[in-house]
Write a structure and sequence with these properties.
The complex is a heterotetramer of chains A (136), B (173), C (298) and D (567).
Chain A lengths: L1 E3 L9 H5 L5 E5 L3 E7 L8 H5 L5 E3 L14 E10 L6 E4 H11 L5 H4 L3 H17 L3
Antiparallel strand pairs in A: 1-4, 2-3, 3-5, 5-6
Chain B lengths: L12 H8 L3 E7 L5 H10 L10 E3 L8 E5 L4 H13 L5 E5 H6 L13 H11 L5 E5 L6 H11 L10 E4 L4
Parallel strand pairs in B: 1-2, 1-3, 3-4, 4-5
Chain D lengths: L1 H11 L3 H14 L3 E8 L2 E6 L4 H10 L3 E11 H4 L1 E10 L4 E9 L5 E2 L9 H11 L3 E2 L25 H7 L13 H5 L5 E2 L9 E6 L2 E7 L8 H5 L7 H6 L6 H16 L5 H29 L3 H22 L8 E2 L2 E2 L5 H27 L1 H7 L7 H6 L4 H6 L6 H4 L20 H25 L18 E8 L2 E9 L4 E7 L1 H5 L3 H5 L7 H6 L5 H5 L16 H5 L5
Parallel strand pairs in D: 2-5, 6-7
Antiparallel strand pairs in D: 1-2, 3-4, 4-5, 8-9, 9-10, 11-12, 13-14, 14-15
Helix pairs in contact in D: 1-2, 2-3, 11-12, 11-18, 12-13, 13-18
The chains are: A alpha+beta (136), B alpha/beta (173), C mainly alpha (298), D alpha+beta (567).
Amino acid sequence: MIEIDPVKCVGCGACVRICPPKALTIEVNEKETILKYFIGRCIFCWMCVQTCPQKAIKTTNKFELSAVDVHELQMELVHNTVKCRVCGKPFITSKFVKEVGRRLNGGFKDDLLYVCPTCRRKLTAKKIATKVTGVE
Amino acid sequence: MVEALPRNGSVDLAKAFDKLKRSIWVFHLNTGSCNGCDIEVLDVLTPYFDVERFGIKLVGSPRHADLILLTGPITIKTLDKVVRAIDAMPRPRLVLALGSCGVGGGIWFNTYSTLGGYPKLQELLKSLGVEVDKVVYVPGCPVRPEAIIYGVALLLGLAEPKVRYERVEAVEG
Amino acid sequence: MDFITISLISFFAVVSAFLPPLLDGVERKVRAKIQSRIGPPTVMQTWYDLRKLAVKELKMPLGGELAVLTVFLSLITSVSSIAYLTYVLITSTLNPLSIATLIVLITASHNLTLLSSVSTSNPFSIVGSYRNVTLLLVNEFGFMAGFIATLYALVRLSTNPTPLSFLAYALGLAALIVSTYVGCGRLPYDIHEAEPELASGALIEFSGVALGTYLYTHLMMRYVFSLLVAYAISTLIIGFTNALVVIAVLALLTSIIYILYGVVAAMLGRTRVDLGVRTLFTLYVSLTLCLVVAWLFA
Amino acid sequence: MVSDIIETLASVARGSRSKSILTKVGEVCGDKLLKVERVSPSTIKVLIKADCLHEVAEVLSAERDVYFRTMAASDERPAENLFKLYYVFGIDSEGTNIVVEVPTDGEREVPSISDVVKACDWYELEAHDLMGVKFSGRFLKRLVLPDDWPEEIHPLRKDITTEEIKKLYQPQVVKRAVELGVEEIVKIPIGPYHPALHEPEYFELYVRGEKVVDARYVGFMVHRGIEKLAESMKYDQVPFLAERICGICGFVHSVSYTQAVEEALNIEVPEKTQYIRTIILELERIHSHLLWIGVALHLLGYDTGFMHAWRIREKVMVLSELLTGSRKTYGINLVGGVRKDINKEKIEKTKQTLKQVLNEYKEFVDVATSVPQVRRRLSGTGVLPGGEARAYSLVGPTARGSGLSRDVRKDYTYGAYHFVSFSIPTYSEGDNLARTLVRIDEVYESINIIEQLLDTIPSSSEIKVDSWEPQPMKLGLGNVEAPRGEVIHVVITGKYGPYRWRVRAPTYQNLQAVPTMLRGVDLADAPITIASIDPCFSCTDRAIKINIKTGKVEFIPLEVLSRGGVR
């Protein structure tokens, strides 16, 4: 099984996208973003370990994974969800936003960082339009 | 839909389960697996792991079996036979769902021709009136021989489960 | 019959009831050794298996009530054949009548198990039994010829030992050993029950107590057959002496033969019904011919 | 002009064989031949109109060294509003693939070629089932999908999603056992019934007494819908899926897939990768053959042999774990390279273990083949003459047991096989013993190959290409000699993952010949005969498998026999 480090993980979802059997899934709701790991479907290929940009996923050599209830084989990691400042839709985790901010080294201003991709595109288009035409 | 076969007599399940601890006969039921788990099941029977040490024996008919080693994601074409095989077992009947496929449908949990693992089958069995006395899920892809043996031990109550449901809050850095 | 005889017979019958599963356990251990495994945890394993089967649910096969009944009948004949054999041995009342009774009892228990599987509706069962019938037809012939010839030669040897009657004894014993080996249903002649593709053949439909009884009867039968061979050999060595000694030697020798058969079985593959029948037929016919010739000259 | 076409054909040909064969194809097609193109060094694609498909098939099947390899149906309606059928023929003597591309609109019937190319039978049925392509001039029946599957749903079409299929079709549990009357049971000795093997497989044997009169494979129990699933996956996820086509020879499938993608996209793989892949492939062959020998001996009732074969095999499993990190489904293969390197220490360890395996194996094989029942029951049973083997385009040890010296490792070389010297064991008797001996000999060859590779493995640590660009709608073929025979994958590339991925496992080809082998065999020898092709049903069905030791048997009335339901 794999172990996800709750300190390092930012909830970016790279592992979810690469996981061949979809044993890792991510669920985004109003309050929280839950990264779910279902051992019962894991094929132990370690693609997530290789992919994780934060090196937050560790392999272990545990094999005694039997359980009487399938539910016992579920692991969850709960992140805070950030809502888009423009449209108010929940989009990513707070840690992820911070990490992006850190990596960009201030290249992005907060008003763009906390905006979901759709709104960000709209915002940028608007800015350009304002620049070109001079009209708000 | 399956109607349950008439049952004859009543069995003292607790007593029978107690006797099972020294002698457990297994029937290997492949429900559309890739063979990976199946050969590990055979591996468990052969010299290196040799589960006859624990009184486990492979039998050729579900009528003789106490435990079904279920591998595979249960494809729709096998469903019919799987239900019948489990129904043919005398009670107490136990099931060991092996491998990612048996536990959660594995890599094909969501294709058009699989049921997607034992939990879904169990719902179906319940609706058909076929009772299964105990189930243990053993993940792995393919499931390791050691894990199978551990699964059997867990099934018989000789070992404690080592994984638990966990819900961890991410630590803000 | 005095008290001692009765208690001896019952003592031996009880031992005979407990010994076969124990011997099977030993055989499993030995087989595991040959296959470089450890095998069952203790030699008591077969007992545990039977005890478990006794408390499991009995699922009646389709139209299988008769089958279950015959299984129990077969157990009874099997036990009584052991008891009767012991009686014959202890009281030294070996005569044509007792031999006939013995053969009837043994073959009856043998065939009843077969009948049990024919009466179920499962084709695997039916094919399994059909094969066994074919094999039995040939084997019973060899068994009777061997058994009678050996006993007859033993009587001759005790009164008038000549090299020729010794040869007759050896030939009869050979036929007896082969036929009892086949009768035990061991490899390569276990085709009625163990063709893996036929999903355990004859006993596929049995469960719970019925299966337990069937297996137990089967082990008993193996024991009876080994006992016969042990008797044929031990009589030559120790003659008809003290009953207690006879029983002790018999029990020991039977166990040895039982295990030896098991060891031989572990080294072989399974034959096909046509091949098996052909081999046995040739063997028995040639052995019988030799016997007849030996007798003619004796 | 016909002469122009023939000239173009000649110009794309690879050698003299392909030149002469292509010329013949050009002659029968005339102006129905639309386009010829060389898609990779070893693959030539010929686009023809459906009308002349049958003639082309006749020409190709008449050639002695041309074998039918696979056929893929692809739904290319989003791009061209057409379905396309890709028939792959291989010229064994030259290692060239001729891909005959036939477009169809899905309404018009395509002429069936299963009358001239026997091996094509299942491919057409499968294309009919999964893609809804219609074929003329043959009897079409359900092959892959369950009997109660709705007529109008073809799961591999692009316009239907898995979710939609699931909504339209829910499996029903039907109990047939209860319907059995006692009357039918009386018929058993002449009637049909199923034997059950340890591997989940489902044959109906029609027996008279103890002799098998006919046999039918009622299969595709393991249909898991892999090809549909792959279409929703990314390039780097598919190798893991491919490995799970079969748990025994999984690496074969993942290598075959990656090779197909690499060919389609022209990716140059580092030499060390080729070495590592080849070593693991051969290791897999050893474990698979040992497994098979064990199971075969078990079927012959020689359980001691079974145990010892598996005891030796366990060493190979430990070796696999050392080299790849897993006992099975290694998961080390990706498009463009492998994930795990082999270092000096591992090489030494591997050599040592192989030496032990070799010694123990020799000893074991000597004993096992001298057991009288094993010899007697193997020789002369399940005979498949070489002619039949050719007609069915059989592959692997099954073909080699019937005297056809076919081996993808030599004929269409790949990986690092051209760096080593090895021989291909061939026996001409065509019985179960011949097929067993082929496998027994191959283990020695495999050990030899691995030793040679370990001696010459490059010391560089470059095992993966850094990056590569996917291009859509490129065709690639990948073939690997699996323990059971050739595996061939056809990949049509997409943007993020394969657009269409067709897997052809060796058993798919070999299984079609099993009824021929079974006819006249004793019932007791039926299992070993079926097993003698080393069937891998999960490969074949690429979706599922079942063990029918349910203790209940279904009866097929004899009328079915006469209705042509049996092949």
